[in-house]
Amino acid sequence: MAPRSLSEALAGFSTEQLSALLALREDLARPLPADLAELAARAVTVASTSRAVDRLDAWQRHVVLGLAAAPDGVGVDDLAGLLGDVPRDALPETLQRLRLAALVWGEDAELHVVRTVREVLGPFPAGLAPVSPRPLSPADVRAALEQVGLAEEVILDRLLWEQPTGALRQADRSVTLETARNPVERLLALGLLRPADTDTVLLPREVSWELRGHRLTRTTPTAEPPTLTSGTRPAGVVTPAAVGAAWALVHDVEQLVDDLSTRPCAVLRDGGVPAREVAARGRRVALQPAQAAMLLEWAGAAGLVATDGPRLLPTPGYDRWTAADGAQRWLQLVRAWAATPRWPMAGAREGAHALATDLPVRGAAEIRAGVLEVLARQPVGQRVEPDELTAAVGWHHPVWAERLPLAELVGELLTEAEQAGLTALGAVSPLARTALGAELDEAVAALFPEPIGHLVVQADLTAVAPGPLRAEVAHDLRLLAEQESRGGGGVYRFTERSLRRAFDAGWSSTEVEAWLAEHSSTGVPQPLRYLLGDVARRHGSIRVTPTLAVVRCDDPAQAASLLQRPEARALGLQQLAPGVLAASVEPDEVVRALQGVGLAPVATDASGATLTAPPPPRAREVERGGGEAEPVDARLAADLLLDRERDRRARAEAVDSAVDVLRRAAATGTEVVVDWVTAAGESTTSRATPLTVTSGAVRLRASGQVVSVPLARVVAARPDGPARR
């Protein structure tokens, strides 16, 4: 028997069909409905229906537009005629999918679109007016169209595709061709426009259909998604290039975040990093400002950085991340990026601030997943052109093409995908599927380079890393030397400034030399030993002690010369004794000022002991609640919902049976045993005589008292049996 409503259609769903519905419309399972009736009520709410319609692909949306534009109860043959030149064999599968999504119900001979679908699509689906009460014949329409001029054609074109109505005062006026004074009145006289009310004219459905050439929309979408046709590259070339890009991403993020350990970054009121600061940090690690802004967003999404008061700092999560292997570090970055509600490339736009609180974009994770799904469907090596990818994404998500700057968003995502190795050399890589949750192929994971702990130190004061360095080795090397090139390996240069930085951090000359001997495969060249000894000899010849600060010089003449410098006034320097000066600012400020004039001071405590650098500062880790809800286990939800429905039906049948027993007992005046639930929620069983049974309650005489019990609280009733207390 054909269902007569959506509720009846859902009641006939099998477990598999119900599971498919909850998978297609997860919002219906949050929280799980009490029964199928509540499920049907939720399915026809405007919010849920709008969400479901927005997720249809172009072909499915075209079919829904046809159903909404057709009279209710249209047959599949009439629907096919309305859809235009479409493949008939694609309709059954599409209609079944729409039934499973609870947007359509009924058999092929009599299809019904859910009422709220029409509300979501508006009063004129596909820009067609409702069926006219007295439609013109096709021959009459063609004859009338032969009499229109250029001015009338402009008006008809304006009403043809979007909105078939226009404002006109006294639209219901009586007009003939002889009395018509303007193009609109001529169209009214020809019957090509009709008054919808006193102030609105309407383009009749049959006229629009003729003008459109019997097409529902300007362009009829294909039943299959568009394919990418830009050619391919060999997978053996693309895969290594993708892994190289993936490792470069890990390396660049590590450099950028590690820089925050030694140079914490001040943030703006909106939580963002100033553009000038982004550019400066990018220069230090050889990144363009846009790249640096994007990678800061990636680091933030992965929980590697966070704000600590007015500063941006690495988190303890960064330390754990650097201890993992390269493939796992890449996975953490990419999957955090895929799930983030933020749009990283927005932080790279002019006037924007990376990590600002105003960068989250509604639906960002869904848009990103939609683009990645199209990429993941392609074979490895398929070349990707932005225009073709935009067209493919627009077919899968036509609402995005209508409402969003889709071409711009796809272009920005392709930039990020290339940076992360999801595409390489302009072609899809095997890593694209991994971003959506697929396991990383072992053969691909094996291509990630194994970090090493040695380097080649050369006589020109440079060190060459022949491969990616272990995180702790790279951190120490960036402290001891200036990095001159990016990449998994890299070139580092030892300078007076870099070695002094290591001494300032608490390293001694012996420790530096021991570290170099341990990690250099070529020993420590003599020029580097000379430089190290020279810096160590001069380092600490001036010691600063808090007074706020006291400056002690081994050479009294040097102290006297300091007092003659312009900086002395800003520091508030005063001579306390030969070679001893007092400062009115904090010790660290004195140290920086003396370094700025080319000296090599060291900071000491009050006892004269050299102060070492404190541990790198870390921000408190923030609980990063995802913008997206946890996925629904559709099969489990369907099983639970059907169990609830069976329980509800069993209770209803039990109540119906109990009502029959109570009515017979009331008619004969006999006693029965009634199981019911009190107002306090306690179950009880009593021997009682039913007096009256109404549609909502039963009046019972029990133990000499008359009580009224709602039928909803009656569990069971039987003619006789012992009473239970």
Automatic annotation (TrEMBL):
Residues 606-630 are annotated as: Disordered. Residues 455-577 form the Helicase XPB/Ssl2 N-terminal domain. Residues 618-627 have a biased composition (Basic and acidic residues). It holds the Pfam family Helicase_C_3. This is Helicase XPB/Ssl2 N-terminal domain-containing protein.
